[in-house]
Amino acid sequence: MTVQRRTALVSVFAALALIGLKLAAGLEADSLGLLSEAAHSGTDLVAALLTFFAVGVSGRPPDPGHPYGHGKAEHLAALAEASILVALSLFIAVQAVLRLAEGDGEVEATAFAFAAVGIVMVIDASRALVSLRAARRFQSPAFATNALHFASDFAGTTAVLAGLLVARGGYPEADAVAALFVSVLVLTAAGRLMRQNVDVLMDRTPTHAHEAAREAIQKLGPEVELRRLRMRTAAGRHFADVVIGVPPAAGIEQGHAAASAVEAAVERALPGSDVVVHVEPEEASAIRERAHAAALRIQRVREIHNVVVLEVAERIEVSLHLKLPGTLSLTEAHDVANEVEAEILASVPEVDAVRTHLEPLEEAAVAWPLRAGSAEEDMRRIVRELTGAEPRELRLVEKGDGVMAFLVLGLYPDRSLAEVHALASKVEERLRREFPEIADVVVHTEP
């Protein structure tokens, strides 16, 4: 037998002993307060039996019919206990009100009654303490319910003791007042227990746990986009369903690594949690890729670039640069743009509007034979003028569509990349301008 079930079994025997003790003292003293406490202990017996059963059921491992385990059995038991408490408390309250209204009932506050109340208070205090320790150790809502229940028993018994003392002083109606107080006390506790356990059974999101998990995931950085987080609790254990977004270009291993990082983060924030992570491509990047693919399905489209996804006033808009053959008329190019926009809107329903920027397709340069004579020397001269040094390599390569000039330049190792790139661009532009018969110029830079 597990420690949890042994603790619950102790509560069963304690409840049986208290019922007998309170009933005997209540009948001898004709005390409605003690009789109400005896009935209250009857619910303790039911509660302890339910807890004993529930802990045994909830401790079972998950099976095909219960893949999330059996933890909610504890909450069902706690809800049943609270329902019994409500019914019994209402009955006791009615009896107390009737006794107060009719003004009858003689209470004999005997020594046995006081002794019984003292013993009950000691037992209630010890049971509350044992159940509270078990609830904290095992994170068990059933034991937490018992702890609260036993604490309310202690408070109720204290009220009964006060009623007996006042009744012994010549005011027998104090016993009915004590019984009424016990009823209100139990009703309040039962209502709180019912609300808490109904929340769990209805999978109400645990606010504190949800916030802790959300913060833990967000601390992983911008490479993991939290799209959805759903949480619920059963038997003190948290269950989290997480949807994250990763860059569309991320491989399977990267996506798995991101999911593992999320699981570890939630586990650190909420130890013992059961976490399931679903990985999706990031929304903006995914829309960009899908819009690009949709545009390329239009037959006359040759090139697309600068695809941008914007969120404007809760609307998603896509803008892109569309390159078409320069021989098309504006009307023909506009018709192609309309086709592209319609295809994107149909293929990517998340997009509300598409804006296209039309550009002519850069035609391949016409290559003429190089001027005879000093073409290569002229190229070297241009490089010297712009860089102050000879090119480390200069080759003219024949291609199917003309001649390509390939240069290797040794530039300043301490200069920034931006400065070196700007200088290489000047060399390229000068050569293209001076030698329009060249089909292409490739400039490679090195320190």
Describe the 3D structure:
It is a single chain. The protein is α/β, with parallel strands linked by helices. It folds into 4 domains: 3-201, Cation efflux protein transmembrane domain (Alpha-lytic protease prodomain-like), CATH 1.20.1510; 207-280, 2-Layer Sandwich (Alpha-Beta Plaits); 284-360, Cation efflux protein, cytoplasmic domain (Alpha-Beta Plaits, 2-Layer Sandwich), CATH 3.30.70.1350; 375-446, 2-Layer Sandwich (Alpha-Beta Plaits). The chain is 59% helix and 18% strand. The strands form 3 sheets. The protein has a 3-stranded mixed beta sheet. 33% of the residues are buried. The model is unreliable at 364-372 (pLDDT under 50).
* Low-confidence residue ranges: 364-372
Portion of residues in beta strands equals: 15-25%
CATH fold description of the largest domain? Alpha-lytic protease prodomain-like
Helix content: 55-70%
Keywords for this entry:
single chain, 447 residues, alpha/beta, Alpha-Beta Plaits, 3-stranded mixed β-sheet, rod-shaped
Layout of helices and strands, plus pairs?
Layout (H helix, E strand, L loop, with lengths): L2 H27 L2 H27 L13 H31 L8 H28 L2 H28 L4 H29 L5 H12 L6 E10 L2 E10 L5 H18 L4 E8 L1 H14 L6 E10 L2 E10 L5 H18 L5 E8 L14 H13 L5 E7 L2 E9 L6 H18 L5 E7 L1
Parallel strand pairs: 2-3, 5-6, 8-9
Antiparallel strand pairs: 1-2, 4-5, 7-8
Helix pairs in contact: 1-2, 1-4, 2-3, 2-5, 2-6, 3-5, 3-6, 4-5, 5-6, 7-8, 9-10, 11-12
